[in-house]
């Protein structure tokens, strides 16, 4: 039986200020999808509300818009996948070996409080499956509690988009909260690369996290290696 991966994407298309669009950071999906596909894994897309997934405009510009992202946008069958993602209530966590939370600032809004996504991730994690995220995807991990009531990320080494990267990206005034600080408040042993925007991954047992868009491929490769 091939391994099965559940990729989590957003339904949100803008910040609190609707004049500033956001959405899925496409390469964070396509880089990982390519790695998982080459490993022979079966893949599915889920989002907090199901249905359509908007794309972050900045992810469609150089250098983020690379060959995997271009190939995805030029393939009608792939773009169709982003129009009909599953809802969490349509997903049985027992069917998956790993969950991978993609990023883009949009996920800061709809990932953290999705009880459906929390249920799925908890189920996978407690069956010794892999819970993984890249960049802002770790916002989906912030509020996950295990069966014993503890936060999944408490006491775990992990990473995700750093506050200094928010500042350098000039969105620190737009984002709804400081995700790095929230992870630390929940007991995470947050770590990051010495330099902003450099690829960086952290592994703690079956928790695999990547810091920024450039970390998607490395994060996916770590997931493949563990599986």
What does the secondary structure layout of this molecule look like, with pairings?
Layout: E1 4-8, H1 26-38, E2 42-46, H2 67-73, H3 76-81, E3 98-101, H4 107-110, H5 115-126, E4 130-134, E5 157-158, H6 163-168, H7 179-185, E6 189-190, E7 201-204, E8 207-210, H8 216-226
Parallel strand pairs: 1-2, 1-3, 3-4, 4-8, 5-6
Antiparallel strand pairs: 7-8
The fold-level CATH name is: Rossmann fold
Main sheet: strand order: 2-1-3-4-8-7
What is the annotated CATH architecture?
Answer: 3-Layer(aba) Sandwich
In terms of per-residue confidence, which ranges show pLDDT below 50 for 5 or more consecutive residues?
none
Which quaternary structure do these chains form? single chain
CATH homology-level superfamily: Class I glutamine amidotransferase (GATase) domain
Number of helices: 8
How many separate structural domains? 1
Shape: globular
CATH class: Alpha Beta
Brief sketch in words of this structure:
This protein is α/β, with parallel strands linked by helices.
Account of the 3D structure:
The structure is a single chain. This protein has 227 residues and is an alpha/beta fold. The chain has helices spanning 26-38, 67-73, 76-81, 107-110, 115-126, 163-168, 179-185, 216-226, and strands at residues 4-8, 42-46, 98-101, 130-134, 157-158, 189-190, 201-204, 207-210. It is built from eight helices and eight strands; from the N terminus they run E-H-E-H-H-E-H-H-E-E-H-H-E-E-E-H. The strands form two sheets. A six-stranded mixed beta sheet has the order 2-1-3-4-8-7, with helices on both faces. The chain has a two-stranded parallel ribbon with strand order 5-6. Helix 1 runs parallel beside helix 8 (216-226). The chain has a single domain (4-226), classed as Rossmann fold (3-Layer(aba) Sandwich), CATH 3.40.50.880.
């Amino acid at each position: 039986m091939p391994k099965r991966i559940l990729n989590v994407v957003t339904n949100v298309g803008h910040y609190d200020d609707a004049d500033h669009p956001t959405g899925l950071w496409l390469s964070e999906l396509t880089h990982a999808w390519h790695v998982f596909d080459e490993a022979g894994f079966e893949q599915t897309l889920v989002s907090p509300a199901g249905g359509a997934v908007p794309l972050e405009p900045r992810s469609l510009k150089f250098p983020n818009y690379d060959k995997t992202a271009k190939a995805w946008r030029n393939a009608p069958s792939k773009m169709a996948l982003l129009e009909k993602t599953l809802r969490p209530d349509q997903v049985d966590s027992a069917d998956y070996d790993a969950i991978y939370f993609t990023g883009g600032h949009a996920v800061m809004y709809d990932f953290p409080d999705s009880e459906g996504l929390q249920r799925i991730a908890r189920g996978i994690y407690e069956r010794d499956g892999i819970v993984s995220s890249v960049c802002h995807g770790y916002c989906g991990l912030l509020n996950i509690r295990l069966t014993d009531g503890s936060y999944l990320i408490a006491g775990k080494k992990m990473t995700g988009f750093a506050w200094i990267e928010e500042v350098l990206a000039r969105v620190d005034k737009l984002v709804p909260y400081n995700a790095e600080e929230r992870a630390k408040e929940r007991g995470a042993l947050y770590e990051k690369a010495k330099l902003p925007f450099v690829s960086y991954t952290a592994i703690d047992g079956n928790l695999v996290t990547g810091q920024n868009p450039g970390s998607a491929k490395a994060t996916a490769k770590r997931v493949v290696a563990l599986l």
